[in-house]
# Entry
Amino acid sequence: MKIAIASEGKYVSGHFGHCEGFTIYEVEDKKVLNKNFTPNPGHRPGFLPIFLKDQGANVIIAGGMGATAQDLFNENGIEVVVGAQGICDDVVEKYLIGELKSTGSVCTEHEHEGHCNE
# Structure
């Protein structure tokens, strides 16, 4: 399983599309085997869900995400978890033990970029 977290440095990004990049965790038996950082190749409508699917992601975690992106991830069989905050390593551990639940929030106003998860 691969879990991608929209990241700003070591923290979960408030808005998935405009994040610095993605910390991708390779997980087996609820243990992290490996992680790497992939820079965001750029925000274009419909592109990032396919990009992350090609990276092998099964789950995407972000602070906030628009409805279209959430729908595209779901159509590609990728679980969406939004409303996450904190240090990426801590967030992935919470996900693995079942303590991280999606708030289901949807970003609708991009003029407030960086505040989608508030």
